[in-house]
Amino acid sequence: MGICYNKLWKLLIDKNMNKTDLKETAGISFNVLARMGKNEPISFESMEKICTTLNCDIGDIIEIEKPMNMDNNRTGFTTIELFAGAGGLALGIEKAGFDTIGLIEFDKDAAETLKVNRPNWRVIHDDVANISCLNLEEYFGIKAGELDLLSGGAPCQAFSYAGKRLGLEDARGTLFYHYATFLQKLQPKMFLFENVRGLLTHDKGRTYATITSIFEQAGYSIQKQVLNAWDYGNPQKRERLITIGIRNDLLEKVHYQFPKPRDYKPILRDVLLDCPDGPGVQYGEKKRKIFELVPPGGYWRDINPVIAKEYMKSCWDMEGGRTGILRRMSLDEPSLTVLTSPSQKQTERCHPLEARPFTVRENARCQSFPDDWEFCGNVSSQYKQVGNAVPVNLAYDIAKEIHKALEAIK
Q1: Active site residue 56
Q2: 340 SS3 class
Q3: Which of 13, 190, 265, 266 is the most buried (most CB within 10 A)?
């Protein structure tokens, strides 16, 4: 499914204008003009400027072309994902039996990761704002109400508080606004919205209150629960706030239950000893020698205080346990939350057997990515992609219950 601006170019000819004239009179940027030249989506604000200048409707300047190989005979449950990242959530959902018909990701390397590993997925490397303003039914080839699952998790941002009954317009300017717009336009049977646990208390709880209000006004009944990835087949302590929505007209038939914790909770011994080699970074020589003094499972309190104080500098006088500083993991415990950078002083995770950070592949194992899942970009980008991902096994257990709930109306 693609965007085409042939109508616009014909309209310009009829009005005896060229592209430069349009750029100057509509006040759009050269970048917007270039995107249209490549038949890529542009923002709704840019479309409005063009339509105002030409005194026309959006339908007069844009059309959506359907490719010949679009599959209209899908047999499985369908899903679209926003803010897809490197694919942890999407991979778990796919494993649960869903057909992925679209994923939107702004980061170039993460989008390339998705394309390389799943050539059959329709990966849209673009700003979600450029997509949410389109006719989504045409763009994805699916009618409102037919999509089975909308998934993703927008970064946490504060909202405005224009009125007592907080609605979609109060979220304008945030990334969540585009998730909610997809929900309003496509009316999927269910949605999965994942985020950090801190969203519950962000801005004194008002951010999540706005989110739930918008979900309810869109016609959904919601359930929420904080789940720890360690309970669901991941050797990592990582809590995520999971919000599940069911469209109100399906409530009599569709019932969702959050997954029960698995019987076995894996530890680092289960994933590190046979982990394939992968890219990574090393500590500097001075830091490496200090970490060699820290026993597995230990931290700064377990070495000579003179050495620890010199290393910690101003952190030495801070309050609290500061247990993340000079922290070395043990094979007999799960990893702490996998982060986007391998070496941050307040939140260090040294390898249990060697004085070095975890490699990208070791972090990916903690996130339960399969070993053949390739991450694109430089090493820093790969660490970031893995650290931002939803653990695959956690996503699978959540999505498996969604699949089970949808089977009632199949």
Answers
A1: no
A2: coil
A3: 190
